[in-house]
């Protein structure tokens, strides 16, 4: 089904605020070719909440 996301609740380590991945858009700090990283900005304190850190792509051909 399009437009249906699984809701997940994440916790900001900085301020303890809980937010849903549906309420807060995912942000990528610097990867134009996203490797599946998952980073959010806490809506309460603005801290980066890293769920999955940015990974370097492991491919033999650069
Ligand atoms: Zn926070």
Write up this protein.
The protein has 62 residues and is mainly beta. It has one domain (9-52). The chain is 0% helix and 27% strand. It has strands at 9-11, 18-20, 26-27, 38-41, 48-52. A three-stranded antiparallel sheet has the order 3-4-5, with no helix packed on it. Strand 1 (9-11) and strand 2 form a beta hairpin. It is globular and about 40 Å long. The N and C termini lie far apart (35 Å). The chain binds zinc ion.
Mean pLDDT: 82
Q: How large is the radius of gyration?
A: 14 Å
The computed structural class is mainly beta
Q: Kindly, what is the distance between the CA atoms of the first and last residues, rounded to a whole number of angstroms?
A: 35 Å
Highlighted features:
single chain, 62 residues, mainly beta, 5 strands
């Amino acid at each position: 089904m399009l437009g249906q996301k699984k809701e997940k609740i994440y916790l900001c380590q900085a301020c303890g605020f809980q937010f849903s991945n549906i309420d807060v858009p995912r942000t990528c700090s610097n990867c134009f070719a996203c490797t599946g990283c998952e980073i959010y900005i806490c809506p309460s304190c603005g801290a980066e909440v890293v769920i999955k850190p940015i990974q370097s792509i492991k491919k033999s051909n650069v």
